[in-house]
Amino acid sequence: MTTGSTRICPAAGTPPDTITAVSTPGGQGGIGIVRISGPLAWAVGLALFRPSRPWPEPGRPPLRRLLHGHVIDPSVGEPVDEVLCAFFQAPHSYTTQDSVELQGHGGPAALMRVLELALGQGCRLARPGEFTLRAYVGGRLALDQAEAVAGLIAAQGEMEARLALAGLAGGLGRRLAPVRQGLLAVAAAVEAAIDFPEDLAELDGPGLARTLEEQALAPLATVLEERARRRVFAEGACVVLAGRPNAGKSSLFNALLGRERAIVHHLAGTTRDALEEPLLLEGLACRLVDTAGLGVGAAQGACAGLDELGRQAARQRLSQADLSLVVLDGAEPLTAEDREVLAQAAGRPRLLAVNKSDLAPAWGLEEAGLPAGAPALRVSAHTGAGLGELVAALKTALTGGQPEPPPGEALANQRQALALERALAAGQEAARLLARSDQPVELVSLELEEALLALGEVDGQGAPDEVIEEIFSKFCVGK
Ligand SMILES: Nc1nc2c(ncn2[C@@H]2O[C@H](COP(=O)(O)OP(=O)(O)OP(=O)(O)O)[C@@H](O)[C@H]2O)c(=O)[nH]1
Ligand SMILES: [Mg+2]
Prior knowledge:
The protein is 43% helix and 17% strand. It is α/β, with parallel strands linked by helices. The chain has three domains: 2-142, 2-Layer Sandwich (Gyrase A, domain 2), CATH 3.30.1360.120; 163-232 and 413-459, Four Helix Bundle (Hemerythrin (Met), subunit A); 239-399, Rossmann fold (3-Layer(aba) Sandwich).
C-alpha cells in the first residue's frame, strides 16, 4: 500500500520496521516519553535501559509494569537520564507490536538524547500518527476509532473529549454496522439479479427500496442529523465580538476570558487585528474573537487606511462566526454605526450585549427598535454584572438549547459527515431507482457500490490509501 512516495502501511509480506518518537509535547515538562514500537523494540529497550534492581529472569523484563532505572549510552555505559520504563509484548500493546516506553525527565535535551540513542540502535523516526496507524493495521482499532484518537488529542473542552472517547470506544462504528449490513443485503439481491437475468422478473424493486430505506438510509440520516444538531459539542464554536468603536468589545473580551488579553482605551479605534482566544462556556469549547470597531464613522482619523484594514478583518471574521456577539454601548444613544453593525450581523445567529450597565442607561431595550429574534442582555464589562447570564445565553444560542449528547454517544466529525452524506445520497438514488422498477438494475448496483465505498471511508472497510493517509497525517508525531 503506497501513496505517492510515502509508504503508509508495509507492503504485504514485508516485516514492519521499528519506529520511535517523543510522544509528549515539545518544551519543558514534568515527564517526557519516548516510544519505541516494532520487532526491534525490546532489543533497543534492553540495550538502552539499565534497571535499578535485577529482574527475576535476566533479559526478560516484567511486562506492562513501570520499571525504575536509567537510560544509558551503550557506547560509553554512562547514564543519560533516570527513567521509568515499560515493556509491552505483541499483541498486548497500543500498536499491537512489541513496544517499549521510556518516561524520562521532560527536558528537551535529555529527551532528544534518548531519542538519538534509540535511532542509533536501528529505529527510524515515526511519521505523524504512525503508532496509531499500526494499531489500525494490527486490527486493534477500527478506522473511526483511530480517528477518535486524533479528536481526543485535539479536544479543548470536556464535552469534545467525552465525545472523542465515545468514538474511541467504537460508538460510531457500532451505529454504522447495521447501515453497512442493510446496504450489503440489498446489493446482494441486486447482484444476483444481474448475474442471473432469468430471476430479474422476480426482483422486488419497491420492497428492496423499503428495506434499503429502513435498514440503511434512515439510520444513516439520523447519524447525520445528530451531527448537524450537536456539531458544536464535538468541534467547538467560533463567537465573534462585533460593534462600533468604543462599545467595549475588548473590555468584554477580557472580562469573559478573565484576564487582560486585549488593550482597552477610551480612544476609539484601539483594536485593529482580530484577537482569538479559547474559552470554555460551561464545558463547551469555543473560540472567542475580538475585532476592530465597525461602522461608517470608524473611518475618521489619521490612520484611515489602517482602520479600514482592521474593519476588513472584522467583517471577514464576522462572516465565519457560528455566532456574533454584537456589543452596544448602553450608556450612549444608539448611533447609525450601531445600526450598521446590527445590519451586518443580521440573518445569522447573534446575541446582543448592551454594555456599560454600571452607568445610567441612555436607552431602553424595548424602545430601541432592536431586531426581533436577537436576545439582548444588559452587561457590564467593568463590574462583571450580567456576565453569568451572558455565558449561559451564549451556550444556549450555540447549542440551540439541545441537551448535551449522552455519555457514550459518538458523533461523526466533519470529514466523516461529508463521506456519510455521499453514502446517503447514493443510497437514496439507489432506492429511487429500485422503487421505479423500470430502471436498469446495473444503475442501482453502481449507486450501492458508491454508497458502500463512501461508508468505507468512515468505517475503514475497503477505505482507499489516500483516505487513510489523510486521516493519519492530521495526527502529531509520537501518537
Ligand atoms: N463604565 C464602563 N466603561 C466601559 C465598560 N466597558 C468598556 N468601557 C470603557 O469604554 C472604553 C472603550 O473600551 P474598549 O473595550 O477599548 O472598547 P472597544 O469596543 O474594544 O473599542 P475599539 O477597540 O476602539 O473598537 C474604555 O474607556 C473602557 O474602559 C463598562 O462596562 N463600563
Ligand atoms: Mg477594542
